[in-house]
Protein 1
Amino acid sequence: MKVSKILEVKGTTLFTMSPQDSLASAVMVMAEHDIGSIVVMSQGKLAGMLTFREVIRILAKRQAENRVGPTPPVSSFKIDEVMNSTPTVVSPDMDVDQLRKLMVDSHERYLPVMNGEMLMGVVSFHDVAKAVLDKQSFENKMLKAYIRDWPQEDKAD
């Protein structure tokens, strides 16, 4: 199975923001739409990814800094100050097994899918798990149907 098949099943809804948008507005979009990532685009090109990981990291950093003195609120940050500006990018032609290994090795749960310069979508660890489960369920169903319809052998004396 290819990454393009996951995107086909998943749908085409994408959430993008600009690097200069506020982190607070990005967090609101993520919460409102129950998503774990936002693609950051600048002048029609991929600039980075903002995921809940980057949000948690900046919150932890601010908490540690608050212990030693006053710090600016998280709401004062722009996305480009927090985002992953070098996300791992995958091709729609990549095999899902390669994608799974890449996600595990890179510790990235959300990967932009690019066809050249064109953003095709984002695949998440959840999307991959669902696709693999659906594929295994289908194969299991087909095997059971095949076994049920197994022709009886003639008994030769």
Protein 2
Amino acid sequence: MITAYIAIGSNQGDPVAQAKCAINALQQLPNTQVTAVSSLYSSTPMGPQDQPDYINAVVEIKTQLEPLSLLDLTQEIELNQGRVRKDERWGPRTLDLDLILFGNTVLDSERLTIPHYGMKVREFVLYPLAEIAPSLTLPDGTELASLLQQVDKNGLTIWQA
């Protein structure tokens, strides 16, 4: 079993419900077990600011799936929850599931880059990840704790109902 981490983001269609539904869907994946789930966080949007704040979380899984199979299944979850892929980068979305780490795998293909290309600078990934895996070291040897010292929270807060 490989330990992998999936980031969740939503700012459309009841984002809290979208995130919770995504977590439930991840629990149903074949040959996969959800082993940790961060709190839900509220974050300001990356990119265009004329959109609602996001709800974010990170889920830790143990899986026997291959990275591209996991990608296919997470994209299916996104589609099932109303995700429409548009040309607009960082625009509003019902659900975004990003495979950010897959064990110590380093992969750079047309469909998938692992570790996720933006994870080292995104507070809405790093802080939830640190909540569930505080002593994590990335495949390149970078300690998660050192990244937290370099990335401001930018208003990131734990979501309160």
Protein 3
Amino acid sequence: MRENLGSFQCSWHDRCVACGRKNNGGLGLRFDVNAAGEVEATFDCRECFEGYPHCLHGGFVAVLLDAAMTNCLFAHGLVGMTGELSIRFRHSVDTGRAARVRAWLERSTHRLHLLRASLEQEGEIRATACGKFLETNLDPQLMRTGESHG
């Protein structure tokens, strides 16, 4: 799974705003596979990502959860685009403290994959998500040049 994750990140997501290694202005998430076969990453919830005072902006919470699920697909050797994303914001995410995001593949049916993710801070689940991803077999080079959208 770790090999898939690294390979797919490089070929499909090298410029991603969340985890792209060639995106110096991005969030810099580094996902890894844990013992349970989930992907996870730690995010430093800096104050520059604040919405309300001392709270991580909800849009960043959504990005973190979506990125975790996408990287989970990569770990399984799959590439898919988000078709549906449902988020439950349980508690605010504090800025100035690290948070951990993790995701797992719940089930797959043909080209449709259902994933779940959670964002935890200080041992408490702050947000959860469910996402439906449609598998794609597009060439990442064609997507990069925009030829696939013609």
Protein 4
Amino acid sequence: MISALVPVKRLAQAKGRLAPLLSQEDRSALALAMLADVVRALGQAERVGEVAVVSADPRVLDEARRLGAVAIEEPTSVRGVNAALAFAARELTARGTEALLVVPTDVPTIAPSEVDGILKALPSPRGIVLVPSVARGTSAIALRPPGAVPFRFGPQSFVAHRREAVAGSVPSRILSIASLATDIDGPQDIVHLLSRPAETETHRALAKMDVVQRLRAFPGQSRPSR
């Protein structure tokens, strides 16, 4: 079975770089909207057998269950996203997962066809597929088996994941996917997202927050078109 896994921070820590633009309540709402978009896209992909969410936040886990995903509670002993992913990967392996796709919530416009494309490229019987961001991060990583390489999310994680693959002699493939190239992190990323209209929960949440008007008053930002 192929499983997809989405790591999510506590909502109180979500999207901190957007604090000058959005309140804590708005940032939490945005994080949940992005989660919904990513989980639904993963769930609609033909090659994904199940979708799981790992988090220490009860609200996130409740939302994951509502969306039909497996909710994996992050233990209090776990520190950081990479440890959380390693824990969840072990849990999913015990459930019969043979290959794993990890997608952060930062790419809410990901499409089911793109998910299937990543998994189709996954080497067999062992290997990884990396989808880099423009900032040299990792927008998605697929692994067969789930522990093929250690998780190295963080600054320059694309380079770190490639290094792990080379060190372990793990076959790797790299895919460039436009919708996954820019994650939603700072105000300029919101501008970029809004310049590409789409029917997503994330777009609807931002419209409800009247983010276009807020961005017009935000120093140093390009003006998004409606």
